[in-house]
Automatic annotation (TrEMBL):
Protein name, per record: HAD-IA family hydrolase
Pfam families per the UniProt record, alphabetical: Hydrolase
UniProt cross-references to Gene3D superfamilies, sorted A to Z: HAD superfamily/HAD-like (3.40.50.1000), Putative phosphatase, domain 2 (1.10.150.240)
Gene Ontology MF terms: hydrolase activity; metal ion binding
Cofactor list: Mg(2+)
UniProt keyword list: Carbohydrate metabolism, Hydrolase, Magnesium, Metal-binding
Similarity section: Belongs to the HAD-like hydrolase superfamily. CbbY/CbbZ/Gph/YieH family.
Length: 236
């Protein structure tokens, strides 16, 4: 009834873009932070940070990894650690400001899916690269569904590799007491889908909030199925 194999007993959800609309806030904050850096570096001829840059280099990755990936893609190799850290802290300040102003909303279809999953006895965890996972869950009133939270603070403390490596999802399954084969991964980022595939999880659900070639890219990255909204997995 939940669109998953019968062998799956645990659902591991990414947060931003899967359960909440905060992926938009992340993208806006990254654009502001990167554009400020690029404008200062290159002047009026700077090339702005784009939505595709966000999807290709930042979405789903830990903050520092996303900064490094984007700068490398632009051929920028002379950024010192302090400057990179300033980009990241600037982005996070903008994100938190938007979050505090009421900018987080759960997707209605995701809430319905979480309710159905809980009613069906499917155990729920959240696995996110964001260090603001608790704040987002609390703001969206979703913490009540979540048994285990693995966020950027946890992965940093444990020295785990970020997505697309499977480490965070493997930890989520471990903390829930199940092997990867008994868990499903729910992701809106290509890096997250790759993470689920690399960890050999029982099912990988891609959520396409972008359109265009995103669904095909998710399938190529290892998604078992791609939907536009989690509600599509529920019975009519």
């Amino acid at each position: 009834m939940l669109g998953l194999p019968d062998t799956v007993t645990v659902a591991l959800f990414d947060l931003d873009g899967v359960l909440t609309s905060t992926a938009v806030l992340h993208q806006q904050a990254w654009k502001a932070a990167f554009d400020a850096f690029l404008r200062q570096r290159d002047g009026a001829d700077f090339v702005p940070f784009t939505e595709q840059d966000y999807l290709d280099y930042v979405d789903g990755r830990p903050r520092d990894d996303g900064i490094a990936a984007f700068l490398a893609a632009r051929g920028i190799t002379d950024v010192d650690p302090a400057t990179a850290a300033a980009i990241g802290s600037g982005k996070n300040e903008l994100f938190l400001k938007n979050l505090e102003s009421g900018g987080v909303m759960p997707y209605p279809g995701s809430v319905r899916y979480l309710q159905a999953a809980r009613d069906a006895g499917l155990r729920i965890a959240v696995v996110t690269s964001s260090k603001n996972g608790k704040a987002v869950l609390d703001a969206a009133d979703l913490s009540k569904f979540v048994e285990v939270r693995v966020d950027g603070l946890v992965t940093s403390e444990r020295g785990l590799r970020g997505k697309p490596a499977p480490d965070s999802y493997l930890l989520g399954a471990e903390l829930m007491g199940v092997p990867p084969s008994a868990a499903a991964v729910f992701e809106d980022a290509i890096s997250g889908v790759q993470s689920g595939a690399a960890g050999h999880f029982g099912y990988v659900v891609g959520i396409d909030r972008v359109g265009g070639t995103q669904a095909a890219s998710m399938t190529a990255a290892g998604a078992s199925i791609v939907v536009n909204d989690l509600e599509e997995l529920l019975p009519v």
